[in-house]
Write a structure and sequence with these properties.
It contains 4 helices and no strands. It folds into 2 domains: about 35 residues; about 100 residues, no CATH class. It is mainly alpha-helical and about 150 residues long. About 40% of the residues lie in helices and about 0% in strands. The protein is elongated.
C-alpha cells in the first residue's frame, strides 16, 4: 500500500513540477513583451505603402452619403449613371455607380412592391414617405447627416 502511495506522490510531484515550469516560462515570455526595453514606438504612423490620404466633403444634395446624389428616383432608374469619360471615370463617378449597383443588388426597386412607400431612402422611421428623395442633407437632425457634416 505504501508503494502505491509513493508512486502516486511521485507522479503528482512531477506533474506539479512541469506545471510550475510551464507557468514560469509563460511569465517570462509575457514579461519580455511588456515593452520595458526603453524603446519608443510610434503607433499612429501611416505606412509608406499606403500612398496619399484624401478627404471628401459631401454637400447632401448633389452628392450625399446615402444615395450618392441619386436620390430615390435615380436609384430606381433603369440604367446606372454613366461616367463623363468611360475610359477614365473619377472616384466620385465610381462611387455613384457602386452605390447604384449595390442598391439594385439588395433591394427590389419596384414601386408596386413597396419601394418608395414601404422601404427605400425616402421612407422615414414611421414607414411614411416624408423624406423627399431621401438624400442626407447637412444640418438635418438625424444621425446620418450629423456624421456627414464631419467628413
Amino acid at each position: 500500500m505504501s508503494t502505491q502511495f509513493n508512486m502516486r506522490l511521485a507522479r503528482a510531484t512531477r506533474r506539479g513540477f512541469s506545471l510550475t515550469v510551464a507557468v514560469m516560462v509563460a511569465m517570462g515570455l509575457l514579461a519580455g513583451c511588456a515593452g520595458g526595453g526603453g524603446e519608443s514606438v510610434d503607433i499612429n504612423v501611416k505606412p509608406a505603402f499606403a500612398g496619399t490620404i484624401s478627404k471628401t466633403n459631401y454637400d447632401g444634395s448633389t452628392d450625399d452619403l446615402l444615395t450618392a446624389g441619386l436620390g430615390k428616383t435615380g436609384l430606381a432608374g433603369a440604367a446606372a449613371p454613366a461616367p463623363a469619360n468611360p475610359t477614365a471615370p473619377t472616384a466620385t463617378e465610381l462611387r455613384r455607380i457602386a452605390i447604384f449597383n449595390n442598391y439594385r443588388a439588395i433591394l427590389d426597386i419596384n414601386a408596386k412592391d413597396g419601394y418608395g412607400t414601404l422601404y427605400g431612402p425616402n421612407v422615414d422611421i414611421n414607414a411614411g414617405d416624408a423624406l423627399g428623395e431621401g438624400k442626407t442633407l447637412p444640418g438635418a437632425d438625424d444621425e446620418v447627416s450629423r456624421s456627414t457634416r464631419s467628413l
